[in-house]
Amino acid sequence: MSNMRAITMMLMSIWLSLAAMAQPSKVKHVILIGCDGFGAYALPEAEMPQLKKLMQDGAWSLTARSVLPSSSAVNWASLLMGAGPTVHGYTEWNSAVPEIRSADTSRFGLFPSVFSLLKEQRPNAVSALVYSWQGIGPLVEKEATTIRVAGKDKDDFCVDTAITIIRTQKPVLTFVHLDEPDGVGHNIGHRTPEYYKELQKVDARIGRIVKAVEDAGIAHESVIIVTADHGGKGKGHGGKSLDEVQIPWVVYGRGVQKGHALKRPIITYDTAATIAWLLKLKMPESWRGLPVKEAFR
């Protein structure tokens, strides 16, 4: 019996060693950039040299998917909370409270987000939340964020603020929410010249954030993820067309494979799971997301 126990312990030790080897080491910072209403369909033809350079030097998918409905709050919640709406309870485009009782709650009173995991497990770690659309605020526990700035629909202000925070505070986790190109999609339409023109501005903003990470001297120990909540069709979204459902998912930085087109299915709640995995945070059983390990060497 003692021999069997020794063998079991040895096998467990080997398994843990292999698991540790599979996980990228020395990732100390994750920067998540969310572009509202950015349909994956637009990226191949868009003039976005900054984002395409991240793709060239990183891993990417243009077939990642939102949850349904393909709308904002329900998807930003899913992206940050590692689960879908039937679990976390936020089901509408502008959900500020769960329409369905959440299946789990953190000690901060909301369904566990990647921010609350970081706060609970690494209480001294600095986190930053900078958001342009005010609907982001109710989705992240105030007590779980170290720095929190509401940009009030001003993307350039959000980028300027995020740059200052990254350079001076070097947060472990930074989420920058940008409201475009969703505004142009609603006002003028998806697949329009104006929409593609707006993506050039989005690209410049992404490039400035990446430069801030380099200027802060943390690029060698950082992972940057660029994604969206949903795409769009005509002047709206929320439906089931691929233009509305498929979103870009681009990851770049420490341990990431270069120029790798990701093959496995990615759902937006896999983003939170990937961040938790990178930062070595234990995920709650209520989460449904899976780390996108294929992206890493």
Automatic annotation (TrEMBL):
Note the SUPFAM superfamilies from the entry: Alkaline phosphatase-like
Q: Kindly give the CDD domains that the UniProt entry links to this protein.
A: ALP_like
Q: What InterPro entries does this protein map onto?
A: Alkaline_phosphatase_core_sf (IPR017850), Phosphodiest/P_Trfase (IPR002591)
User: What keywords are annotated for this sequence in UniProt?
Assistant: Signal
Q: What residue range is the signal peptide?
A: 1-22
Top-level taxon of origin: Bacteria
Q: Name one Pfam family in it.
A: Phosphodiest
PANTHER family per UniProt: BIS(5'-ADENOSYL)-TRIPHOSPHATASE, ECTONUCLEOTIDE PYROPHOSPHATASE/PHOSPHODIESTERASE
From the Swiss-Prot or TrEMBL record, give the protein name: Alkaline phosphatase
What is the source species?
A: Niabella pedocola
